[in-house]
Amino acid sequence: MTIEEQKNLYHLMNKYNKIDSSIIKSNLIKYIDRSEYKRNSQELADKLGLNLNTIYLYRQPLKRSNINFETALKLSSILEISILDLMK
Questions:
Q1: Nearest to 59 by CA among 16, 24, 19
Q2: Do residues 14 and 68 lie in contact, with contact meaning Cβ atoms separated by under 8 Å?
Q3: What integer best gives the mean pLDDT of the chain?
Q4: Which of 50, 61, 55 is nearest to 35 (CA)?
Q5: Contacts of 5 (CB under 8 A, 6+ apart)
Q6: Which residue has the higher pLDDT, 61 or 11?
Q7: Is 4 left (phi over 0), alpha (psi -120 to 50) or beta?
Q8: Residues with Cβ within 8 Å of residue 88, at least 6 apart in sequence
């Protein structure tokens, strides 16, 4: 990774961390519901190395949960979206 790529990643992480977590969660729910993982949360949990209950928690709009940057980056890759899509 070049220094410039590292700077861009650092900038992206800071931007992500400043966004209201409810926006990220709302977008995550939307993209999971549009994906093949809507009905297969266990497969998504396995790919992320997370407990199935964590995926259920992420998908509950009224349950408070913060999704860290690394997990959001993995999720966006699995869902084949840009992490910026979670931040809109």
A1: 24
A2: no
A3: 93
A4: 55
A5: none
A6: 11
A7: alpha
A8: 23, 27
Instruction: Tokens for 65, please give them.
Output: 């949960």
Q: Which domains are seen in the chain, by residue range?
A: 3-86 (1.10.260.40)
| pTM of the entire predicted model | 0.86
The tokens 């997990």 sit on which residue?
71
Q: What's the pLDDT score for residue 59?
A: 87
Residue with tokens 């199935």: 52
Residue 20 tokens, joined? 């209201």
User: What are the respective helix, strand and coil percentages of the chain, to the nearest 5?
Assistant: 70, 0, 30
Q: And the tokens for 38?
A: 């809507």
Provide the 8-state DSSP code for 62. Answer: T
- How far lies 37's CA from each of 16, 43, 44, in Å? 23, 7, 6
Number of Cβ atoms within 10 Å of the Cβ of 32? 19
How far is C-alpha 44 from the chain's CA centre? 11
